[in-house]
Amino acid sequence: MERLFATHQIRHSQEAAPFWNFRTLDEGGLDKPIRTLVPGAWETLPMLRSYRGRGVYEQTFTGGGNLRFQFGGVSFRAKVSLDGQEIVSHYGAYTAFDAIVPGVPEGQHTLTVEVDNRFGGDSALHVVNDYYSYGGITRPVVLEQLPDAYIARLYVTPIFTDEGWKAAVETTVRNLADESASYDLHIIIDGLAEGEVSLQLDAKAETVTSALIDCPDAEFWQPLNARLYTITARLEKDGQPVDDLIDRFGFRQVQVQGKDILFNGEKLLLKGFNRHEDYGSFGCAIPLSAMQQDLDLMLDLGCNCVRTCHYPNDPRFLDLCDELGILVWEESHARGLTEEQMRNPHFMEQTLLCTREMVQQHYNHPAIFIWGCLNECADNCEYGADCYRQTYQQLRALDLSRPITAALLERPGGLVFGESDVVSVNLYPLWYHDCPVQRQIDMKLEEIRTHGGDNKPVIISEIGAGAIYGNHDPFGQAKWSEERQCTILRQQIETVLAEPELSGVFLWQFADCRICDEWFGSRPRAYNNKGVVDEFRRPKMSYAVVKELFHRE
Ligand code: ADA
Q1: Does the beta carbon of 473 lie inside 6 Å of ligand 1?
Q2: How many CB atoms lie within 10 A of CB 208?
């Protein structure tokens, strides 16, 4: 299932058959072709545990007409062909892309996807890193049959006014036909409001329409008390429905006021985790039930938020957060890139692509309360600072309804504290630095104040310590012991939550995650071991510490 609700009642849309023929093209791959399940990461096959190379997925299907192929995520380069003819290519594992092929003759066709997860100079964001860049078709694939005109996009922005809630709705309709034509567009917000507009669609063009719809009876979407509404856009021709697009959204408002982040007018205190999309037995292609379990654990721990470090997440995870009322910091892809890496000629183009796709694809999720980008990149040099500015500018151009931020590295010298709405910093006192927690926070706050970030909200976007599951030190001192992780996390959380200057914390991290093999020297087990649960979600001793402290008022 691509989402947690039906996105169409009228359009013919169905998920691709789960089994695909699969073969590899490079050294270290398979001896012979196999059948494999999609979505999935090929590293979950025992013989491809560390395969970096190309894999080819193929399946036949019967159909015809205007076909749309939607890929939720392919990690991390994709080249898609229909009957041997390339129809689309895409870079980046964490956002969806599609191909529309009009006028396909009825019959049997072959869909081929060549996937490549090798690092290389053409890839500026997927590089050797402190998480694993998996290979495969890792999110659902959907096949659709489109009418001549279809609804391509639907954005809803809730706006709180003196007269109550309104919904600003922007719909894009695309006409694939060679002639212009008249259509009617209906917008229905479940139980609240309806609207209708007549459209004259030009041949082979997109038409964007906007409407501001009164929703005086709308209920608030609140953290941990989520009220979701369904919005349907339905396209009709001569009174007959021809296409639809269904999404969900919520009425809520995020504001930045001085040093506070206000959610529906109330000051937010964030208590949550960083979570990689990674699971011991599934890699990055996590089944729905395991996503739900992660959120159940987070709720049990007392969290009200999660950060999708360091890339956009599977929309089903965001759907679950929408349902449960868990706030999401979603960020575009990039982690720890140096100035040299940011100078890769593809860096800015790939960053802006991922950022644009993230905002456009996830715009309607009420749970997303802030956009992030460029985790721990080179914000301390003019070149890097300019990359931050360009990315912020793009985020603002795409969405003015949410604040923006970036998790900045703890070293001094940052040049962009003044450029985002919220300042966020990653700090590791008592783990990487033998410095009392309060002192490191005071020093950082002082630097932020005096370098452009005065009077802005500040979030601790990462703080934490490592422990290997089952590794014990009765004296509580040894690095990597569960006991020491408890001691450090206790001091970190108590200090951060008691600091009135801060808007909260995202602990590093929820679960242990696999890292690139090349990093094995600095990461025992080739995992980042700072989870409070391990990669199979077995709780470490620190789980109880976080639970106690997050549940304290
Ligand atoms: C950084 C980084 C994380 C992770 C963490 C760590 O803050 O943003 O991705 O690498 O450090 O574990 O050291």
Answers
A1: no
A2: 11
User: Residue 462: CB within 6 Å of ligand 1?
Assistant: yes
The ligand 1 atom at the shortest distance from the C-alpha of residue 131 is 9
Whole-prediction pTM value?
0.98
Could you give the count of Cα atoms lying within 13 Å of 303 in the half-sphere of its Cβ? 27
In this structure, are residues 236 and 183 in contact, taking their beta carbons and an 8 Å threshold? Answer: yes
Q: What is the CA radius of gyration of the chain?
A: 24
Our mutation pick for probing the ligand 1 site, out of 128, 278, 462, 525, counting the most ligand atoms within 8 A of Cβ, is 462
DSSP letter, residue 48: G
Q: Is 315 in a helix, a strand, or coil?
A: helix
**DSSP string of 57-120?**
EEEEEEEEEEEEEEES-EESEEEEEETTEEEEEEE-TTS-EEEEEEEEEEEEEEEEEEEE----
376 CB under 6 A from ligand 1?
yes
DSSP assigned state of 1: -
Count CB atoms within 10 A of the CB of residue 168.
14
Which ligand 1 atom is at minimum distance from the Cα of 130? 10
What is the position in ligand 1's atom list of the atom closest to the CA of 462?
A: 7
Residue 553 has what pLDDT? 65
The answer to whether the CB of 410 is under 6 A from ligand 1 is no
Residue whose entry in the numeric block shows the structure tokens 């529906």:
264
Closest Cα to atom 4, ligand 1: which residue?
A: 130
Task: Quote the tokens at residue 321.
Answer: 């957060």
Amino acid at 491: Q
Give me the pLDDT at residue 422, please.
98
CB 527 near ligand 1, within 6 Å: no
What is the C-alpha to C-alpha distance for residues 95 and 87, in angstroms, rounded to an integer?
18
Q: Which residues of the chain have pLDDT under 70?
A: 553
Residue type, 308: T
